[in-house]
Structure formats: structure tokens, C-alpha cells
């Protein structure tokens, strides 16, 4: 595996602060605005420093929010991290849901939409990607439980393959969805750790074909057989 490249420092400036004094905004709006800034700060700071070394002061300074406000919104660093993880995964699931709804009603098209959307999201949001794929592993039991739940949400989609589109059931396993999702996540993890997050969309075709092979999908095996026949000709 290629040597890990250091994560770049978060160069974008913190989100614009609310005007001081009487700004005429409701307390709910102000709290929401500050909460979103802290969640964004958590993702960017953790992507740069790692979860363990990140301090509350690092997050508040990046967000331009006071320490007092931080503790009015979150219990501690872990609470903020979990809120950020939940917000990011909810955003991702919404985007993937839209991609799936727009895809043709075939398993092949939906797998392409799912993997393509996932890889594009990770490439477009490298801080979110590093936080949710890499840093969550060191965030403690509650973070790992969130990760497990997010991963399991993919199983029904991957497993929703019509019987007519798979190979001999004798060769299939009930853990195939876990095998596919786990393998995809490991490839994504390696790319992020190697500083190659932006190139993730280039892996869509390979990962989709590997998913087809895991299910003995006829389209993939016919393609392989055709190439083998051409090579022997």
C-alpha cells in the first residue's frame, strides 16, 4: 500500500459569524446556526488533526463560537462528533436515495447509482470522508455503533437482487452484502489514508463489477467469458 500522505490543513476560513448584539434573529435560529458551524468545524479539524488530539478549543476557534456556547449545545467532544457523524450520514443517505430513485429499475443500474453516488460524495467532501471512514474508528464505542448502523443500512439495497439476475444459489452466501459493503469501504479507507480521496470516482467501474461477480451476475460473467474467448481466439 502507498505511504500515507499527511492530511492537508483546513485552509477555508471559518463560517461567517453572526453579528454581535441585537441581530433580530430568533434564539432557535441562532442555536441552529452555531450548531451547524460547530459540526462543520468538527469535521474539518478532526480531518486535519485526528479525533484523539482534537480539543474542544480547536473546534470552537475554527467555528468562531464561544466555549460557553459549545457546552450549551453539546455535552462534550464526543457528543459533537456523533452529531456531526449523524448529520453527514443523513446527508449522504439522502443523496444516495435520490440517485437510486432516478436510476433505472434494474439491480445493475441501482448498484452503479449507489456506488457512483457514494464515491462522488466522498471525493467532493474529503473532510467528511476522512471523519466518517477513518477517524470514526478511533472515536470510541458509541462512534463504532453509529458506524455499524450506517454500514448495515446498505445491506438491504445490495441484497435486493432479483433471483432472476443472480447465478446458482448454491454458490451464494447470506453474508454477501456484508462482504461487498465491507470490501468497498476498505478500498475507500485505503484511498483516503493514501491521500487519494479525490480520485475515488475512478474506482466506480471496478467496484461495481466486483459486486456483480460476488453475486455471479450474468452480465459480468458473460463479459468475462467473452473476453476469455477473445483471448483464446
Describe the overall structure.
- The chain has 233 residues and is an all-alpha fold.
- It has one domain: Tetracycline Repressor, domain 2.
- It has 11 helices and no strands.
- Helix 1 packs across helix 4.
- The protein is elongated and about 70 Å long.
- 30% of the residues are buried.
- About 9% of the residues have low confidence.
Kindly list the characteristics that best describe this protein.
Tetracycline Repressor, domain 2; mainly alpha; 233 residues; single chain
Give the SSE map.
Blueprint lengths: L26 H23 L6 H8 L3 H7 L3 H26 L4 H18 L1 H9 L6 H12 L2 H5 L16 H18 L10 H11 L3 H15 L1
Helix pairs in contact: 1-2, 1-4, 1-6, 4-5, 4-7, 5-6, 5-10, 6-9, 9-10
Short recap of the structure:
With 233 residues, the protein is an all-alpha fold.
The strand count comes to 0
Distance between the termini: 36 Å
Helix content: 55-70%
Uncertain spans, ≥5 residues at pLDDT below 50?
5-9, 11-27
Strand content: under 5%
CATH homology-level superfamily: Tetracycline Repressor, domain 2
What fold name stands as the CATH topology?
A: Tetracycline Repressor, domain 2
What's the Cα radius of gyration? 21 Å
Mean pLDDT: 81
Amino acid at each position: 500500500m502507498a505511504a500515507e500522505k499527511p492530511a492537508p490543513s483546513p485552509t477555508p476560513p471559518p463560517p461567517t459569524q453572526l453579528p454581535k448584539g441585537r441581530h433580530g434573529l430568533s434564539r432557535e435560529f441562532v442555536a441552529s446556526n452555531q450548531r451547524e458551524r460547530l459540526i462543520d468545524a468538527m469535521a474539518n479539524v478532526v480531518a486535519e488533526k485526528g479525533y484523539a488530539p482534537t480539543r474542544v478549543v480547536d473546534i470552537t476557534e475554527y467555528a468562531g463560537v464561544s466555549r460557553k456556547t459549545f457546552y450549551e449545545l453539546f455535552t462534550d467532544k464526543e457528543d459533537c462528533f456523533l452529531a456531526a457523524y449523524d448529520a453527514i450520514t443523513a446527508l449522504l443517505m439522502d443523496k444516495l436515495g435520490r440517485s437510486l430513485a432516478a436510476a433505472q429499475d434494474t439491480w445493475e443500474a441501482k448498484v452503479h447509482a449507489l456506488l457512483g453516488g457514494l464515491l462522488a460524495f466522498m471525493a467532493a467532501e474529503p473532510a467528511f470522508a476522512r471523519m466518517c471512514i477513518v477517524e470514526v474508528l478511533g472515536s470510541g464505542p458509541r462512534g463504532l455503533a453509529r458506524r455499524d448502523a450506517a454500514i448495515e443500512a446498505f445491506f438491504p439495497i445490495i441484497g435486493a437482487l432479483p433471483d432472476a439476475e443472480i447465478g446458482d444459489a448454491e454458490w451464494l452466501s447470506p453474508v454477501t452484502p456484508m462482504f461487498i459493503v465491507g470490501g468497498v469501504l476498505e478500498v475507500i479507507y485505503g484511498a483516503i489514508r493514501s491521500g487519494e480521496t479525490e480520485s475515488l470516482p475512478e474506482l466506480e467501474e471496478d467496484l461495481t463489477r466486483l459486486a456483480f461477480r460476488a453475486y455471479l451476475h450474468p452480465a459480468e460473467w458473460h463479459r468475462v467469458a467473452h473476453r476469455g474467448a477473445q483471448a483464446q481466439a
